[in-house]
TrEMBL record:
Biological process terms in GO annotation: auxin biosynthetic process
Protein name, entry field: indole-3-pyruvate monooxygenase
Protein family according to the UniProt entry: Belongs to the FMO family.
EC number: 1.14.13.168
Organism: Salix purpurea
UniProt-listed Gene3D superfamilies: FAD/NAD(P)-binding domain
Domain of life from the UniProt record: Eukaryota
Keyword set, alphabetical order: Auxin biosynthesis, FAD, Flavoprotein, NADP, Oxidoreductase
Length: 274
């Protein structure tokens, strides 16, 4: 097993923000043959999930070769083996499995005028917490699960947050009547068609969250599960950011600026704006 970073679970350890928790229950995220410890809550924190990965590797004696980045992999038909070049070493193997994930490399869009911006510009993979942004104006570009949760973290640290939303998207409550929305969905799909389950989820979302359209966030014409199936786009599971968007007032003793959501693409940047 080759790993280009220096540790197990490098994406979680090195490229995630501090307040991150699993958005799905631990029962659905466990690895084979080893559940989470019973004392771990339903939605493990970043630290708890990293500890679980480390304990899993230790229990099953999984010992990756760290700091080994694969440069090439070529199948040698004459030998019937793969020739894999990593750093200064070559590995020969009959079977070659690529398990690099889908979020390993950060993508920064080329926004016109961004080079003239004098403030701080960071990708979510480098964001840790909102303490350093107290009292500052911050624009979060993107309204996926990471963008929503980082916006919430910034609000809770008294930043003045704006949220730019390019496209239509689905926001769902993380739980319905105390049960995971994801688990309810997968259970219902055993009995009902996708469109009917989607209709149920949207009714529940309307009751629990309210009308997202009034806040400038429009929903797609197709339902959240159908969209996930057809495009791969995951719905946002709300953990508190949407209530900040709706209120913009003090909540729980925290001063929170409203997150302004605008359904437009960020095409240009003027340094006077932020």
């Amino acid at each position: 097993m080759l790993e280009k970073e220096s540790c197990v679970g490098s994406l979680w350890r090195l490229k995630t923000y501090n307040r991150l928790q699993l958005h799905l229950p631990k029962e659905t995220c466990k690895l084979p043959h080893m559940p989470f410890p019973p004392e771990v809550p339903a939605y493990p924190t970043k630290k708890q999930f990293i500890s679980y990965l480390e304990a899993y590797a230790k229990h099953f004696a999984i010992e990756p070769m760290f700091r080994q980045e694969v440069q090439s992999a070529i199948y040698d038909a004459r030998m019937g083996f793969w020739r894999v070049q990593a750093n200064e070493s070559e590995f020969l193997c009959r079977w070659f499995i690529v398990a690099t994930g889908e979020n390993a490399e950060p993508v920064l869009p080329n926004i016109e005028g961004i080079s003239d911006f004098k403030g701080s510009l960071i990708h979510t993979s480098r964001y840790k917490d909102g303490a350093a942004f107290e009292g500052q104006k911050v624009l979060v570009v993107g309204c996926g699960n990471s963008g929503m949760e980082i916006s919430l973290d910034l609000c809770n640290n008294d930043a003045q947050v704006s949220l730019a939303v390019r496209d239509k998207l689905h926001i769902l409550p993380r739980e319905i009547l105390g049960r995971s929305t994801f688990c309810i969905s997968t259970w219902l799909l055993n009995w009902f068609p996708v469109k009917l389950v989607d209709r149920f989820l949207l009714v529940c979302s309307q009751v629990i969250l309210g009308d997202t359209h009034k806040m400038g966030i429009r929903r797609p014409k197709i339902g959240p599960l159908e969209q996930k199936k057809s495009t791969g786009k995951t719905p946002v599971l709300d953990v508190g950011a949407f209530s900040k968007i709706k209120s913009g007032q003090n909540q729980g003793g925290l001063r929170c600026s409203k997150i302004y959501s605008q359904r437009r693409r960020v095409c240009g940047w003027t340094s006077r704006e932020f």
